[in-house]
Amino acid sequence: MTFDPRSLARPWLLDVVPYTGEREAHGQDGLTLLDMNENPNGDGDGNTGLNRYPGPEVRALYARMARLYGRPENHLMISPGSDEAIGMLIRAFCTPGEHSILVNPPTFGMYALSAKVNGVAAKSVPMLADAKLDWTALSDAAEQDANARIIFLCTPQNPCGTAVPHDEILAFAKRHADRIIVVDEAYQEFADGPSLIDEPAGSLPNVVVLRTLSKAYALAGARIGCMIGEPGLVAIVKALQSPYPLPTPSVKAALAALSPAGVAQSKRQITELKEERDRLAAALSQHDDIETVFESQANFLFVTMRQADAWHQTLLNDFGILVRNQTKALPGGLRISVGTPRENDLLLQALGLAPAPKADRKAELKRETKETSIYCAVNLDKPGPSSIATGVGFFDHMLDQLTKHSGIAMVIATEGDTHIDTHHTVEDTMIALGQVLDQAVGDKRGILRYGHFDLVMDEARAQAAIDLSGRAHASFDGSFKADSLGGLQTEMVAHCIQSLAEKLRATIHVSVTGDNDHHKCEAVFKALAKALKMAVKIEGDALPSTKGLL
Ligand code: PMP
Prior knowledge:
The structure is a single chain. 35% of the residues lie in helices and 20% in strands. It is of the alpha/beta class. It folds into three domains: 5-26 and 52-257, Aspartate Aminotransferase, domain 2 (3-Layer(aba) Sandwich), CATH 3.40.640.10; 263-350, Alpha-Beta Complex (Aspartate Aminotransferase, domain 1); 362-535, Ribosomal Protein S5, domain 2 (2-Layer Sandwich). It has a seven-stranded mixed sheet with strand order 1-7-6-5-4-2-3, with helices on both faces. The longest helix is centred in the middle third of the chain and has 25 residues, at 260-284. It binds 4'-deoxy-4'-aminopyridoxal-5'-phosphate. 4'-deoxy-4'-aminopyridoxal-5'-phosphate binds at residues 81-83, 108, 154, 158, 184, 186, 212, 214, 220, 225.
């Protein structure tokens, strides 16, 4: 049987011609815009463009999200949060009082709530006790009720965090090829397994996948979600969309989050959240009152706990910590979002678990100028994972030396105006790196403060000495024969040290001798790395200064 979404759609949606202005066709660059009754007055020099209806940015976001999810643009509907798409799907395919949806409690409450506000029944097929889907009961329910038009699945599953096996969803979707299967993947970025959108386009015509920027991209406040499906089905749902559903500031925030710097940032945050999730899970499983910690593939943990209501109140009233009481969904159930390492430590302390280990010294920043877009993060207390991508090959090689030999994890993603030359890219990257290193060393309590290293590399020899004094001073003694090494102008080596010293607020002296420019340059960065490693090392808890301030 070939699945035809038109046969399920509410009939009057089939010939809706979605509203599009002429700007869609012509673009608006260079035009005097007198077509939409907007107020022509922006807000001066810092014009945010909010006097205009959203337009070009939205098209850019469609292009960007299509690339992110590996599907053509007409397979996507971007909506104000995926919550909105849930309601729209129900309105597009279910007639109030006639059709129904199937849900698997405990599950995300919006499916049933959206059904209710649209006058559509939500029929429950409860999960099995171990938070696994009851496929047999779900199949029976679908087969017994031809009016059950949409089946909502959620993986990783909210509230339990468990992933529904990919092959089981595929088999179910193929078996019920006459229904719409909505697979809500709001937390997919935190999962180890594949996404349904990795399946070849066209292979699952009745499946709609929901994704969101709310979780992995830290944009819950911007309300940007995405529905992904076959173009025919997507077009039917889109017929319900109002003309300008996505506010310009949200679209701009989404574009920034999906820039190379934004993606690098989110990747690092996901890694950290997953590490924290696993740390938290291990610690919680030691608690006397916690019976089960469900294996989570999301950015939260679900536990069943003796005295769960009382614990929920204690955490709130005595410690100001709010976790989600899910005792109605599952007896003893509490859902706990993974927070920052500090927040997680507070929770563990409140539960009387593990004295809070000292948090890693780390920092991150996103820096956008007309010349460069940079994401930079460091962790002084972990050697990795690191990733360096500046678009300047030899400079990447040098930064790789810096992270490797300093034992400082660095994530650096720079997109610069290298079509001009590599100057801005290199300079701004070092500025960003200096800033995050300075933030990460924090109040400098307990650090060695001074670091030095004498490093040989074949015929080359470099010496680096650092004082994290709070005062910027740089000195470089050395010269190169070549103007440039693999895209890095050699005059930038001294400039790198200067930029680093300024932003790290450190005194840095470097000298190099030798014959081979590649060796000399590499020796400089390695010596710098080793000196930095020593300077940031913790040796006690005193402030290494007689002044009492660094
Ligand atoms: N699906 C699930 C499973 C969720 O948990 C949530 C939000 N908590 C959403 C969808 C809604 O996401 P959005 O912010 O994109 O509306």
